[in-house]
Structure formats: C-alpha cells, structure tokens
Amino acid sequence: MKDKMTSLERMTAYNKGESIDRLPCNPNIANGAARVIGCKISEFKGNGKLIAKAQVEAYRMFGHDGVRIFTDLYVQAEAMGAKVYYPLDDTANLETPAINDVSEIEKLQPANPYKDGHLPAHLEAAKILIDQIGLEVPCSGGIVGPFTNAFFLIGIERMTKLILKNPEAVHKLCELSLETCKRYAEAFIKIGLTPTISEPMSSTTIVSPKQFKEFSFPYLKRLIDFILSKGKTVTLHICGKTEKIWEDMVASGANCLSIDNVASLYNCKNKVGDKVRIMGNVDPSSVMYDGTIQDVRQATIECVKQAYDSPKGYIICSGCSLPINTPFANIQAMMDTAREIGYPIKIDALPIQFTMD
Amino acid sequence: MAQNKELLFKSLSDAVFEMEEEKTVTLSNTIIEENIDAYEAIEKGLSDGMNRAGQLYEEEEYFIPELLTCADAMYAGLDILKQHLKVNNAGIKNKIVIGVVEGDTHDIGKNLVKVMLETSGFEVIDLGRDIPPRDFVEKAKEVNAKIIALSTLMTTTMEGMKEVLAILKKENLRDQIKVMVGGGPISQGFAEKIGADGYAVNASEAAKLAIKLVIGGIDHER
User: Fold this and answer.
1) Is the pLDDT of residue A354 over 70?
2) d(CA B53, CA B18)
3) Is B222 a member of any domain?
4) Cα gap A92→A144, rounded to integer Å
5) In this predicted structure, what is the pLDDT of residue B3?
6) Is the confidence at residue B185, as pLDDT, over 90?
7) Are residues B117 and B180 in the same domain?
8) How confident is the model at residue B120 (pLDDT cuts 50, 70, 90)?
C-alpha cells in the first residue's frame, strides 16, 4: 500500500489536529537497518556515511514515521573515556567504564561532540539524513539520558551500589553526564534534528520510583528544559516497567512518552494521555522478531484499540528497538496494518481479536 | 544451643535481607567460632536472606540497588563460611558446567548454586554470565561434564535454555549430559516443557538434584 501523505506532512497535520491519511507508525528499526543495505553492524563504527545510508534506505523501504541516528547506548560514555566492544555483527556493548573508582570522578570531562569518540561520525550521519530525507520525514538524534549514561562512566554494578552507598558521587556523575547530553543534543539541534532521549536505567525494573526521582529526574528535566528552550520537542523512551513514574515522566517536560511492552498502553493513555502523546508498544521480541505476519497484525491492531483515542495523540511503535534480525516482512506488516486501519479510525470495524487488559 | 543456632541463622538471614554487610560478617564469624555447620548457615541464613530480598523485588519493594547491596552482604558472609564447608563426596569426580544464559548478567543465584555444588563434591566449571548456548555444550564436551546447570533471572533469556537442549540433542549428547535449570522465572513446569532433567527452587535443592541426576543417571535411559 502507498501512503497519501509524506511522513512530515502527516506529523505536521496530526500535531495541528488536522485530518491525516493514517496514524503515524514507527517500528523502531535501529541497527537492523544494516540488514537493508547488507552491511555488518560493526561497519557502523565511526562511519557516519554508512549509518545514514542504512537509515535512509530502510526509510525508503518501509516509509516509517521517524528516522533516528542511534547505534547503541554507549556512544556518549565512549566519548568520555569508556571502552566499547564492537562484535562483528551485533550491537556494541560496554567493555570497561571510563573510571573504576569514585576517586577518579574528578578526571572525567564532558564530551566534545565535534571531537570525542564516535560522536562526530554520528553528527555526520545526522547531517546526511537531514540533507537526503529531512523534508519528507521527522529526523531525530538518539541521546542516552544523563542517569543511564552515568552507569557506563563508572560501571553498571558500581553505579547501582553507589545509589545507596554514595549518593553524592551519583549526583556528580549525573552532572557530568548531563553536560555531555546537552552538548550532544545541541549539536543535533544545530543540524536540524530533534533529540529523542533513551533512559533505560530509570525504569522501575532497575531503580525505585523514589531513586528515579532523586537521581535521574532532576538531570532529565534539565536536559529536556534545555532542548525545549531550543524550540524542539522531546520524545522520552524508558524501557521496562514505568507505570509508577509516568507522572514524573510527564513532569520532566517530555512531549511524547514511548513505553515498553511490559507496561500497559491502555493504562498509560488513561493516566497521562491527556497531558502527553504516547507511543508503543508492540513486543519487539516475541511478536516483531519471533512472530508471524498475522501476529504482528493482531498486536498492532490491539495497540491501536488501546490508545487510538489518546487525547494528545498516539503513534504506533514497538515497545523498544527491534532486534537486528527482525524479518522485513514483519516490519512491513506493521506499516501495512497502520495503512489498512487508515484514519479516522473506525474502532468497531477493526477485527476483534483480543480483549483489553 | 539448638535454639541459639536457629536464632543465629535468622539473624544472618535478616542481616543479608537488611543489607548489613558488617553484621553479616560478624555473625558469620560467630557461627564459625561456635562450630555451627557452615552449610546449614549458608542455606538457612545467607541464602534465605537473599531469597527474601528476591521476594521483595518481585513485590516491587526492593529494586536492583537493594538487591545488589544484599548480595554484597551475602558474598561477604559466604567468603567466611565457605572455607569451613565440609565437602562430602556424593558428587565426587563428576563435573558440572554452570552459567547464566545469554542476555542475562544476574549471577547471584548461580554463584550460590556453585558453592552448594562444590560442597556436595562436584567439580564445578563456572562459565560466568551472559553465556551463549553453544558455549555450554562445547565446554561440557571438552571437560566431559555430566551435568549442565543453567540459570537465569530474566524471562527474555529462557529461550537460551531450550537452545542448549536442542544443541545437545542434535549432537546426540542428550543421553550423556543432564541439564538442570533454575532462576527467578523458571518453574518445574517450564523445565518439563523444554525437556530439562530437573529444576531446583534454590541452591541447596540444586545440589540435591545434581546428586540425584548423577546417581540416577547410571541406569536411566531416556
């Protein structure tokens, strides 16, 4: 099926409450774009041209609403001195943190996005993206939130324990982290992209709502305030359980919340849908990667049923980045389901497959 | 004495559960000084405290920072107590390959099981955490292990356990190598569903199960 509007036309109209051809839909392809151009994931390392090429080609193939420059969670930490392991054909992983002890915090410096690590390559990718498809589709730059990035500076386990044992050190790390986030966000904004924030460690799967409020929220809010002050909007994705922090996520100033499939889209709509746009949450693993086309169709319809009438708007999305080897047919099925449903949505005409939570 | 013993175990469990590392160390030393069985202290004290912490995590009262801090206390006690474990020979000369399946880095449970298995006389080859299915099989072949023990805390990695069994079957090793599974989301039902040889709910049960598997395995045809 063909779209009648470009993605940018669609998003602009949807934001104004005007008529659109279908709901926006973003399967969240991530590094799987490598499969579209047939390169290995590790080839993305420091190669802005290739990152951009993969994302542009993936967009040409599926026509999803929103293309993002994002390879892994570690680019900012790497630019601050962490070592990252790049498997030949899988997403990068943290090898060693930037520092190993609280006493070394003073040594850390915020990253310079034009110079440090692979940030310049990502900015190059951002520039190509804007040049090639910036007039057709919203382009975003993926940023890892201050709290999550701080884990990679001193090590995940160490940081986790510091939360109870040395709150002051955690705040210091988050402050440094925030400065890197702001600089990186500003660099994306100057090129013309909209920053999106991933904050997986803020999930209540990891920390308590109270710990989130104390250690993550203040820095997240300052980052979002900064981005908003530059005239951009912010999408905030927190993986895992988030129900207990939805109000805080709204209070952080984010315009759109992207939620994981372990959280309930229906509850999210009812709780905060009148304040922010929501997106989600087809299971990226058991449905998108492992399911059949029919499974994808059903899950997509189910999400639409749960959230299509969310007051501030709804975007069909996966609950998290898709696994690299997600079948193209399933990504296509999600997009086609959005196209078949069309707009305005006649909820009674949708096939009845599941009951709501 | 008996009551004192049970009281000490309870205090040890509380100390772990309440994240009090120093208290855990003090109590562990007391247990050694009073010649109380270290195995029982690990089982009814340290392991019990960790299980209670895990329960609170399930109930969303504890989170990962609390769990890791409990684990620190538990390990501090374990360092003291494990030197005084009386090794029995039930599992002697049998090797077990143990690890946390790929995609998961939670290894608290696995580390406890390892200690209990060693106490039961097994030689334990610990692959660590985040281990691909193939590596379990390769290592088991290399060292001629009788059992592969798989652990996970995350539902997303349960497939990896199935994969280990599939590889063993494919390589016609299923009769020679037993597979036991455990961890937060794992149940007896899951173990049966994927065709594992056994499931254990905690570390000491895992040790008993391992003994049963090697003894029962001699004339057991599947």
Assistant:
1) no
2) 8
3) no
4) 14
5) 62
6) no
7) yes
8) confident
B69: which chain A residues are within 8 Å (Cβ-Cβ)? 161, 164-165
In a domain, A77, yes or no: yes
Residue B118 has pLDDT above 90, yes or no: no
Structurally, chain B folds into a number of domains equal to 2
Determine what percent of chain A is predicted with pLDDT higher than 90.
Answer: 92
Look at B216 and B117; give whichever has higher pLDDT: B117
**3-class state of residue A256 by DSSP:** strand
Total tally of structural domains belonging to chain A: 1
Contact B65 A204 (CB under 8 A): no
Q: How far apart are CA B106 and CA B130, in angstroms?
A: 8
Q: Tell me whether residues B64 and A165 touch, CB distance under 8 A.
A: no
Q: How far is B95 from chain A, CA to nearest CA, in Å? A: 30
Please indicate whether, in this complex, the C-beta atoms of B64 and A206 are within 8 angstroms of each other: yes
Tokens representing A161 are 């324990």
Strand order in the sheet with A67-69: A25-26, A314-318, A277-282, A256-259, A235-238, A194-198, A139-144, A67-69
Dist CA B181 CA B149 (whole Å): 6
Q: What is the ipTM of this complex?
A: 0.88
B128 contacts chain A (CB < 8 A): no
Please indicate, yes or no, whether residues B80 and B100 belong to a single structural domain of this protein.
no
The CATH number of the domain holding residue B99 is: 3.40.50.280
Residue A197's H or E segment, with its range, is: strand A194-198
Structural domain including B53 reads: 2-84
Per-residue model confidence as pLDDT tens digits over A143-160: 999 999 999 999 998 999
Asked if B184 is an interface residue toward chain A (Cβ–Cβ < 8 A), one would say no
Residues B61, A153, A251: CA angle, nearest 5 degrees: 50
Task: Quote the tokens at residue A244.
Answer: 């207990």
Contacts of B172 (CB under 8 A, 6+ apart): none
Q: Is A164 in contact with B65 (Cβ distance < 8 A)?
A: yes
Contact between B215 and B184 (Cβ < 8 Å): no
Are B169 and B62 in the same domain?
Answer: no
- DSSP lists the bridge partners of residue B147 as B96, B178
Q: Determine, yes or no, domain membership for A107.
A: yes
Q: Is residue A92's pLDDT more than 50?
A: yes
pLDDT tens figures, A221-230: 999 999 999 9
The CATH number of the domain where A289 resides is what?
Answer: 3.20.20.210
Segment of A90-94, A138-142, A156-160, A322-326 carrying the highest mean pLDDT: A138-142
Would B153 be classed as within a structural domain? yes
Is the model's pLDDT at A288 over the cut of 80?
Answer: yes
Residue where a domain terminates, one of B49, B84, B119? B84
Over residues A189-198, mean pLDDT: 98
